């Protein structure tokens, strides 16, 4: 079965800045999809009925393969939907050495990893931003960060105020970097970070944090506004305009309930062939892993208390795949190697 014939279901909530990256990509590539909207805090029973424990948003299901982490999601969409007349290329970062380095390494870590650009942006959320001072929201995010739900919130109004000066410095430095280097383009200016005719994965990787902060009114206009960073704000404006036009052209996403999404997923085929476990992988060697072992997989930076439990299907230097049992069948959960850990599920194995 062709990938295009499989259901594509995006589990997300409307204001998730990470989910917006995937929505932009799908629309810019003209890939129709279905969305299953989720609450911004736990519980998420729609995700749970897939057998998936992962607590972060978004997740993307293509057939019975479920992909975690936007970095892996975007890479998989690139691989599973090669450029064609139906799905125009984004002049992908993989097309040149500069793009490969920027997307897979520098910009990805710079924007996403703990302590990076997004995490500093969290402390710039305005004091009265709706929902962010709700005790339930603060408790949920504390749990995601590995803290007791009754612990003082690291992103409370007071905590954000205390960290704001440092966060402003970090974000301002990032804005200066883009303004004076990639967007400067040798002094003549560039529309897109790689000097391409259209935005690429590199642009999506970098722009989402700035669009999110600007939309919240989180940046002081006098020192971090359009007058101070004309190239950066011009870049953001061009991207938003193109993304909005692409959304109109691709059409509104279909909406599905959790039951409808699960039925479509469990009733479909896998999007990818079953892989193998690389016996030379240092982690495979150290942990004594082999295909079919019962394992646990979890993110190491946030949401680490939510572990996937299932059979190890494949593992490489870039990806871990486990098969988990859901309400109506099984799915294969794909996690990137970077930022995730895998261990034998000793407790489950001992109960066999």
UniProtKB/TrEMBL annotation:
<dbReference type="Pfam" id="PF13417">
    <property type="entry name" value="GST_N_3"/>
</dbReference>
<feature type="domain" description="GST N-terminal">
    <location>
        <begin position="10"/>
        <end position="84"/>
    </location>
</feature>
<dbReference type="InterPro" id="IPR058268">
    <property type="entry name" value="DUF7962"/>
</dbReference>
<protein>
    <recommendedName>
        <fullName>GST N-terminal domain-containing protein</fullName>
    </recommendedName>
</protein>
<dbReference type="Pfam" id="PF25907">
    <property type="entry name" value="DUF7962"/>
</dbReference>
<dbReference type="InterPro" id="IPR036282">
    <property type="entry name" value="Glutathione-S-Trfase_C_sf"/>
</dbReference>
<dbReference type="InterPro" id="IPR036249">
    <property type="entry name" value="Thioredoxin-like_sf"/>
</dbReference>
<feature type="domain" description="DUF7962">
    <location>
        <begin position="123"/>
        <end position="248"/>
    </location>
</feature>
<dbReference type="InterPro" id="IPR004045">
    <property type="entry name" value="Glutathione_S-Trfase_N"/>
</dbReference>
């Amino acid at each position: 079965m062709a990938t295009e014939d499989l259901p594509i279901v995006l589990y997300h909530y409307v204001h998730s800045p990470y989910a917006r990256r995937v929505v932009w990509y799908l629309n810019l590539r003209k890939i129709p999809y279905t969305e299953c909207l989720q609450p911004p805090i736990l519980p998420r029973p729609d995700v749970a009925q897939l057998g998936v424990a992962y607590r972060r948003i978004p997740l993307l299901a293509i057939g019975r393969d479920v992909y975690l982490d936007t970095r892996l999601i975007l890479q998989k969409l690139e691989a599973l939907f090669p450029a064609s007349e139906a799905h125009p290329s984004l002049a992908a970062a993989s097309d040149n050495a500069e793009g490969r380095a920027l997307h897979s390494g520098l910009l990805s870590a710079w924007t996403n990893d703990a302590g990076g650009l997004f995490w500093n942006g969290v402390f710039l959320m305005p004091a009265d931003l709706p929902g962010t001072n709700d005790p339930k929201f603060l408790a949920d995010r504390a749990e995601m960060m590995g803290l007791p739900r009754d612990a003082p919130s690291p992103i409370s109004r007071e905590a954000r105020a205390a960290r704001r000066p440092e966060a402003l410095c970090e974000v301002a430095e990032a804005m200066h970097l883009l303004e004076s280097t990639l967007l400067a383009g040798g002094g003549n200016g560039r529309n897109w970070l790689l000097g391409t005719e259209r935005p690429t994965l590199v642009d999506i990787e970098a722009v989402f944090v700035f669009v999110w902060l600007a939309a919240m009114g989180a940046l002081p206009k006098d020192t971090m506004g359009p007058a101070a960073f004309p190239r950066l704000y011009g870049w953001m404006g061009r991207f938003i305009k193109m993304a909005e036009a692409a959304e109109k052209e691709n059409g509104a996403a279909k909406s599905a309930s959790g039951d409808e999404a699960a039925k479509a997923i469990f009733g479909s085929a896998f999007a990818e062939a079953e892989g193998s476990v690389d016996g030379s992988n240092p982690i495979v060697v150290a942990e004594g892993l082999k295909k079919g072992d019962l394992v646990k997989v979890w993110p190491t930076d946030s949401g680490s208390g939510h572990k996937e439990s299932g059979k190890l299907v494949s593992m490489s230097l870039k990806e871990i795949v486990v098969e988990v049992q859901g309400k109506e069948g099984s799915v294969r959960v794909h996690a990137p190697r970077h930022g995730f850990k895998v261990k034998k599920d000793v407790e489950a194995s001992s109960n066999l």
